[in-house]
Amino acid sequence: MSPHQQTHVIVGAGLAGAKAAETLREEGFDGQIVMIAAEPERPYERPPLSKEVLRGEAARETAFVHDASFYDERDIELVTGTAATAIDPGRFRVTLAGGRELAYDRLLLATGAEPRRLPVPGADLDGVRRLRTLADADALREQLRPGARVVVVGAGWIGSEVAASARTLGAEVTVIDRAKVPLEHVLGERIGAVYRDLHREHGVEYLPQTGVGAFEGDGRVSAVRTTDGRLLPCDLAVVGIGVAPRTELAEAAGLAVEDGVVCDERLGTTAPAVYAAGDVASAWHPFYGRHLRVEHWANALHQGPAAAQAMLGRPVVYDRIPYFYSDQYDVGMEYSGLAGADDELVVRGDLERREFVAFWLRDDRVVAGMNVNVWDVNQHVQALIRSRAVVDRAALADPGTPLDALVPATAAS
Ligand code: NAP
Fold it and tell me: Given a cut of 80, is residue 411 above it in pLDDT?
């Protein structure tokens, strides 16, 4: 009798799922791997969808995580265009749309997140778009022509990057934001203002503290009505007002869910043999001493492999400091850490020239840092955060003091 061949099933074929499958094979797992993709595409990365791929500067092919041959070559069964409809952790089974049932030895939930919808009249009109998938990016790219009138709703990361890309392509762009400045929820008012000015200098009309009352049009959007009664004529609208983790499968299966699928630091959920990674996972973070759900690319990139290691019984603890980057026009940035609205801001460099490092301090310690058009410093920012060292504000603000000099030797080693 042949020994039982193990099957590991990955539900969700985004970056986290794809990197998990890759790692399972790299680490020598020779059982069956099945990946379930709701979309018709093989796994792809999202950062280029609001940047190079949206602007047509990079081919859509460049967004894919792996070559088309990768999955066959590694004997990974990639089931595309098929959603998982249920999991049964008691019977170690996953059910797919169409009725196929799969038995698993380990299951990874990497179902990602779903864009929030704006609950206003006209939200279903043609031309009211979102940007989450490669298909969304394809459709949007078609319409971002020079002179096209685009209203962007929300100035979070999607809104900001889409506005920059659309403007770069020559569209007429208006951004409606309920905050005072773009990205205020992450960067606060002073740094958010840098992005407001950047967009305005590039010709974007930025409307702060403005809500959407309705999308108007006959079948197709032709204007956005603001809550203060203005009518903004447009050819299309792009809504980027955040995402919600796709937790329905986990919830229905009785797993603990609290703004994400609750996991321990090994990314194990409350059900045996079930793991979670990426946007959907709310994992215990040893450094922060609490559960953390991170909606950024780097988290998916690293949590997928960590979950795969855990699925193979390896001793892994996921404790990376959150990290992300953004490019808008000629301004690039990297951000590490986690800051709140009450944290103190210290700036090194020049906000007006958009060449600076911003630090957020809590109890005299750096909790987050963001370098803007300044490079090769992010590893020092992360080391500072991890060291929890009390910092000298003057030295932190002084571009002449190397950042690594502020990291205590004991923490740096
Ligand atoms: P986001 O960055 O979380 O920003 C959402 C924005 O929408 C916030 O400014 C929020 O304002 C606002 N908002 C929420 N509900 C609203 C409502 N009902 N009406 C008007 N505004 C509302 O989300 P996103 O821009 O949609 O991006 C989607 C996901 O992709 C996020 O997880 C994001 O991190 C990720 N992403 C990341 C990058 C990057 O790392 N460079 C780029 C693109 C996308 P409040 O703060 O007031 O709630």
Answer: no
